[in-house]
Specification:
This protein is an alpha/beta fold. Strand 5 and strand 6 form a beta hairpin. It is globular, with a radius of gyration of 24 Å. The structure holds flavin-adenine dinucleotide and FE2/S2 (inorganic) cluster.
Length: 508
């Protein structure tokens, strides 16, 4: 049901506003023909764009203008102010843009701009194959077509579902507050419309980098000119007695999330093994389904290794407020039909067990093919592997981080998508280095935590605001340098921190 909140607000921009109402750097929301439009004055120009992000509808009026781009406050998507193009994930669709005129002391917004069709590029005979139907693989395919790649694109995935919004699988979808039709990244017809051959339930068994050929699980072969490896990661399975019982689940795919939901419908008590991001997000989702949840984990504080003690304590307190019971500095030694046995002694009843003890990158294909491996598939700044014409992106890729000069591998949705996009451009011969500042978000109940940068270790944590009051920015420093910044409800500060790090990368 439409409410007053859904109605576009602000002045009718087709009637014009005084030019003096929009100072340099200002953002102003108004409406045109019933649609909410954001006016931005930047570098002397005025742009008129849709007021909400095409990812999850974040309010761009709260975003940050950086040069000729605007960044979304929620998950840092980056859009061109001139064309509306979604330049950097997680948004993949462009913003609508309107023509603007400045005359007689007024700014007047006229009709919508047409999105130009991409010019065809590359020989039509060229074959690009993508192994993996996840974040990186999908974003690469989308970018190839967006840039007008004229050749064939084949995407191979051993999943049975077309690419999905994986972060949703442990959040709203699992909690029952998002319908399943929100989960696919694109509808089934999108692949045919974009001439992308998507082969699901297709396992790639081997890769011959010299012959530029893949062998599939059914023994058939597929030749390519360029290849993107984006095989992602798989959940670690503990070698526990009872770990293969039907009520024990890991969470990676849509099928996994569906299976947990099916079990949750008849479960009363769940044990989550592991206080990882996925384990804790699953705990929150199961609490939303009014299931009693116990979390068993070896660490002293949840997420302390990534966030430090203060945010770790906050995350624990937040979950406890919602009724989650923690059994920390503990473990599970066996899983039975109706309970789990704890390392420290005793049992916990459980008719649903979720294993959230981390993931392992799927490297087997690259390893067997003889590609250079170093705790991940080694890639250069262009995301090219040690074999010509073969690129890697996402959870498997270990790349040189321009901020620290170290090689890093991360397991973040936005990084995987942005790497897929960069790899796509490089497969088209553009030679763009991957220089994005890492970003991830995690959501626990109604509290989002955003994180920019990458800090495996730090010697100081600096907190601005109040963590327990859910209003803070936390800086992780090493030798005085800020390596990463976590934040709760400080979206503007988080965007500024990312822009600051981008400047350091550009200067590096
Ligand atoms: C439940 C869940 C919630 C998450 N939430 C967040 C979040 O809130 N924020 C965040 O930053 N990150 C989150 N992540 C992490 C994020 O989803 C990953 O970092 C991201 O999906 C990695 O993308 P990828 O393309 O590398 O791999 P994936 O998305 O895992 O895709 C890999 C693909 O490769 C296919 N594949 C693998 N091997 C083969 C083979 N041999 N043959 C054929 N196909 C193969 C798989 O079937 C799959 O389609 C979450 C992850 C999960 C599981
Ligand atoms: S809502 Fe804009 S990036 Fe997610």
């Amino acid at each position: 049901m439409a409410t007053d909140d859904d109605k576009p607000k602000g002045p009718d921009l087709s009637q014009g506003i005084p030019a003096s109402d929009l100072a340099e750097g200002a953002l102003l929301t108004g409406q045109v023909g019933g649609e909410e439009v954001l006016l931005v004055r930047h570098g002397g120009k005025v742009s008129a764009i849709a007021a909400h992000c095409t990812h999850y509808h974040g309010p761009l009026a709260d975003g940050l203008v950086v040069g000729d781009t605007i960044r979304c406050p929620w998950h840092h998507a980056c859009f061109s102010l001139a064309s509306g193009e979604a330049l950097a994930a997680p948004a993949l669709s462009p913003l609508d843009c309107w023509n603007v005129e400045e005359r007689g002391g007024k700014i007047v917004v006229a009709g919508k701009k047409e999105q130009p069709a991409p010019k065809k590029t590359g020989p039509a005979s060229e074959r690009i194959v993508i192994v993996g139907g996840g974040a990186a693989g999908f974003a690469a395919a989308e970018m190839l077509r967006r840039r007008g790649f004229a050749g064939s694109i084949t995407m191979l995935s051993n999943d049975d579902a077309a690419p999905v919004d994986r972060p949703n699988l442990s959040k709203d979808y699992l909690a029952g507050s998002a319908p399943e039709d929100w989960v696919p990244l694109r509808g089934d017809d999108w692949y045919a419309q974009n001439n992308i051959t998507l082969k699901l339930k297709t396992d790639v068994a081997t890769l011959d980098p010299r012959a530029k050929k893949l062998t599939l699980g059914d023994g058939s072969t597929l030749a390519f000119d360029k290849l993107l490896l984006a095989t992602g990661a798989e959940p670690v399975k503990l070698p526990l007695p009872g770990a293969d019982l039907p009520h024990v689940h890991t969470l990676r795919s849509l099928a996994d999330s569906r299976a947990i939901i099916a079990q949750a419908k008849k479960a009363k008590r769940a044990v989550v093994i592991g206080a990882s991001f996925i384990g804790l997000e699953a705990a929150a989702a199961l609490r939303a389904r009014e299931i009693e949840v116990h979390v068993v984990a070896p660490e002293q504080r949840p997420l302390e290794r990534v966030f430090g003690p203060q945010l770790g304590d906050f995350v624990r307190a937040l979950h406890e407020e919602h009724g989650v019971k923690f059994h920390l500095e503990n473990g599970v030694t066996a899983i039975g039909v109706g309970n789990v046995t704890l390392k420290a002694g005793g049992t916990l009843d459980a008719d649903l067990v979720v294993l959230g003890v981390g993931v392992r990158p799927r490297l087997a294909l690259a390893e067997k093919a003889g590609l250079a491996i170093d705790k991940g598939v080694s890639v250069n700044e262009y995301l090219q592997t040690s074999a010509p014409g073969i690129f890697a992106a996402g959870d498997i890729a270990r790349w040189p981080d321009p901020l620290t000069g170290e090689r890093i591998r991360v397991e973040h949705w936005v990084v995987a998508e942005r790497q897929g996009q960069t790899a796509a451009r490089n497969m088209l011969g553009e030679r763009v280095p991957f220089r994005a500042v890492p970003f991830f978000w995690s959501q626990h109940y109604d509290v989002p935590i955003n994180y920019v940068g990458h800090a495996e270790k730090w010697d100081a944590i600096e907190i601005d605001g109040d963590v327990m009051k859910r209003d803070c920015i936390v800086r992780y420093r090493l030798g005085g340098r800020v390596l990463a910044v976590a934040s709760i409800y400080r979206d503007g500060d988080s965007l500024k921190a990312a822009a600051e790090m981008e400047k350091r990368v550009a200067a590096a």
